[in-house]
């Protein structure tokens, strides 16, 4: 079996599971700066695509590969894979459901703490010799503890649930919104309360995004929702950049309706230096914690995801259905 890998060869070599040599597959690598169409045209007998979640997998690419049986995202996201084209051709599309939940949850809590506890500005104050001045300012400001916060999770899948588990020992009050409310026993297990989205925004001190991008959720954090947000709330995004309207969030931060932002995922990526949430006026910039999409980038996360991907390849080679199919086959 021949496998097209849309991603860096070094990463796949590092995280290859122990059983990979036994599969006897031929790996064809296409890095992010190469053309998948050209690579596919040169290898029309490819049967599997393993794709970095930031690389589009189009129907045009599938047309070049008549023997294609499986497309697997290297991550949890799969919005850049043409699901309908794959479904029409009988090609399984799978993702790595839950593989990065622990990693992203840790990053989410870190960003919350950095935004609340002056992680960036405090570091800068020490570098600039302003330690005592800033310490006095913070002591006079009644700075909050994380455990005092009402935290609203938008979405309640694997990552949000892992985040809720980490937050519970702090003593936070936890709330959530999803399109489909969870059963009472799930809410009880996580000590979490359901609220409609606008009510969640109005009541919570920290609003943390944990949902997928689709037609319903694209730019869900827009001017209309931000008009309902609790004054001074902190917006955290470790999900997808397209969930937020960049200009609306920028304006809310500048005007002070948002007390801060802590952002790990941007739209677009790569993120330019003049991005609306990067190129901020000084006062707003002091209330922004920015991270270069590192949430899921841990060795544990990649080991789990690559084990799942190659297990799916093994299943398809054996004529079995792979796990975590996302295109309804």
Description of the molecule:
This protein is α/β, with parallel strands linked by helices and 329 residues long. It folds into two domains: 2-99 and 299-317, NAD(P)-binding Rossmann-like Domain (Rossmann fold); 101-290, Rossmann fold (3-Layer(aba) Sandwich), CATH 3.40.50. It contains 15 helices and twelve strands. It has helices at residues 9-14, 20-23, 36-42, 59-63, 83-88, 101-116, 119-127, 131-139, 158-167, 184-190, 197-203, 223-226, 246-255, 282-285, 299-317, and strands at 2-6, 26-30, 48-51, 70-73, 92-94, 150-154, 173-177, 192-194, 206-209, 233-237, 258-263, 288-290. It has a seven-stranded parallel sheet with strand order 8-7-6-9-10-11-12, sandwiched between helices. Helix 12 (223-226) links the parallel strand 9 and strand 10. Helix 6 (101-116) crosses helix 9 (158-167) and helix 7 packs antiparallel against helix 8 (131-139). The model has no long low-confidence stretch (mean pLDDT 96).
Briefly, what is this?
This protein has 329 residues and is α/β, with parallel strands linked by helices. The chain is built from 15 helices and twelve strands. The strands form two sheets. The chain has a seven-stranded parallel β-sheet, with helices on both faces.
């Amino acid at each position: 079996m021949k496998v097209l890998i849309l991603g860096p060869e070094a990463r796949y070599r590092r995280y290859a599971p122990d059983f990979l040599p036994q599969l006897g597959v031929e790996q064809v690598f296409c890095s992010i700066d190469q053309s998948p169409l050209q690579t596919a045209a040169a290898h029309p007998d490819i049967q599997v695509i393993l794709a970095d979640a930031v690389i589009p997998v189009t129907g045009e690419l599938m047309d070049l590969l008549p023997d294609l049986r499986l497309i697997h995202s290297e991550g949890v996201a799969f919005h850049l894979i043409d699901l309908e084209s794959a479904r029409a051709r009988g090609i399984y599309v799978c993702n790595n459901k839950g593989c990065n939940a622990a990693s992203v949850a840790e990053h989410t809590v870190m960003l919350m703490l950095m935004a609340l506890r002056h992680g960036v500005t405090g570091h800068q104050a020490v570098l600039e010799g302003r330690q005592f001045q800033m310490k006095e300012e913070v002591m006079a400001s009644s700075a909050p503890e994380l455990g005092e916060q009402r935290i609203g999770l938008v979405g309640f899948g694997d990552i949000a649930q892992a985040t809720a588990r980490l937050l519970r020992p702090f003593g936070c009050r936890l709330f959530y919104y999803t399109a489909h409310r969870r059963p009472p026993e799930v809410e009880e297990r996580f000590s979490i309360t359901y609220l409609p989205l606008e009510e969640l925004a109005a009541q919570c001190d920290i609003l943390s995004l944990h949902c997928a991008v689709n037609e319903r959720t694209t730019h869900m954090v827009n001017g209309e929702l931000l008009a309902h947000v609790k004054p001074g709330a902190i917006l955290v995004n470790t999900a997808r950049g397209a969930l937020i309207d960049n200009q609306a969030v920028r304006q809310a931060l500048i005007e002070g309706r948002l007390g801060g932002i802590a952002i790990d995922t941007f739209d677009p990526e790569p993120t330019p230096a003049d991005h609306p949430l990067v190129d901020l006026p000084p006062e707003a910039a002091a209330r922004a914690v920015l991270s270069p999409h590192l949430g899921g980038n841990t060795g544990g996360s990649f080991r789990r995801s690559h084990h799942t991907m190659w297990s799916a390849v093994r299943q398809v080679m054996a004529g079995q259905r792979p796990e975590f199919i996302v295109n309804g086959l």
